[in-house]
Design goal:
322 residues, alpha+beta, eight-stranded mixed beta sheet
Length: 322
């Protein structure tokens, strides 16, 4: 059983989701909002609080991260999601994390980034891929992969593992793909493309999430469309990348709900060079070898494909049935 530092399960209530200082106007305002939302969604509220109060790592995570309590009430992943959809997605995500023995890793990643792998680019420039479990992108995904070069951000991708009606398996849901800011942002992105042997940094991040999803047992990936991005809900006035264009470029199919879909797939062990021009085959081989090396390192770091300790799968699955 996972527990907090005192060895006891923390009691999680609606008030646990209030971040404002007690006995202040913001505190009472947040309290009223939560109570109204709980009255509007009584069934979902009961199920979510019951889950958060189960002894285990999720209870510990909720005690450390108050925003988790109110997550079922706020825009999350896609503007097509209602409260019930958000609850279903969160339950699926944390059930899979527990089932794979990854909750201890998630707890650590909620405190500080976990380095999944370090690698050298084409010229030898050092790059790093890290995992975060909470970040400024928490409305767009419960996990964030971050690519950095010498400590400077190149790209981040936020995603969760969700369940949807009509599907027998879970899916990777990408809710955000974000580049760096600053005067040298575009140069960092272009340089990363060169260092990745011609692979664009944003495509590289999608490929990593796609592979992690595959290794976790997901067989398809959902990609949020432009009109469904929750970022539009609270970042007015900013210019965003055209997600729809990128998803079409990687071969994803448009869905009726405005999002896109593509199969998760394993990176092939070898390349078929027949369709690659002869003058680009050397670069293609190096790019493929680099991807294989990176994904092997990440898979090993996450313990995917192995029997890990701290399995809570059976107890967690029972407690999360909707």
């Amino acid at each position: 059983m996972a527990s907090d530092r005192s060895g006891c399960t923390s009691r999680i209530s609606l008030r646990s989701g209030i971040v404002a200082r007690r006995h202040t106007w913001p505190y009472y305002r947040e309290r009223v909002k939560l109570q109204v939302r709980a009255l509007l969604h009584p069934g979902e509220t009961r199920r979510w609080l019951a889950l958060l109060n189960e002894p285990g790592a999720l209870n510990e995570l909720a005690s450390r991260q108050p925003h988790l309590v109110r997550k079922i009430y706020r825009p999350y992943m896609s503007l097509t999601y209602g409260c019930r959809d958000r609850l279903r997605a969160l339950v699926a995500h944390y059930a899979l994390m527990a089932g794979k023995g990854l909750m201890p890793l998630i707890l650590f990643a909620a405190r500080e980034p976990i380095v999944l792998t370090r690698f050298s680019g084409k010229s030898g420039a050092p790059y790093e891929i890290s995992l975060l479990a909470t970040s400024t992108l928490d409305r767009e995904g419960d996990l964030v992969l971050r690519l950095t070069q010498a400590g400077a951000l190149v790209y981040s991708i936020a995603f969760s593992l969700v369940e949807e009606y009509g599907y027998s398996d879970q899916a990777v849901f990408i809710g955000c793909l974000q580049g760096p800011r600053g005067v040298d942002a575009m140069e960092r992105i272009r340089e990363a493309g060169r260092e990745l042997h011609g692979l664009r940094a944003k495509n590289f991040m999608v490929r990593l999430a796609r592979q992690i999803g595959y290794d976790l047992g997901c067989r398809h990936m959902i990609l949020v469309g432009n009109r469904n991005r929750v970022a539009h809900h609270y970042r007015k006035g900013l210019t965003f990348a055209d997600y729809d264009l990128l998803w079409r470029e990687i071969g994803a199919c448009a869905r009726a709900d405005g999002n896109y879909e593509i199969a998760c797939e394993d990176l092939p062990h070898s390349l078929t060079m027949a369709a690659v021009p002869s003058n680009k085959r050397s670069e293609a081989r190096k790019r493929h070898a680099l991807l294989q090396s990176i994904m092997t390192s990440i898979r090993s770091r996450l313990g995917l494909g192995e029997q890990m300790e701290h399995y809570e799968a059976v107890a967690f699955a029972r407690s999360t049935s909707l």
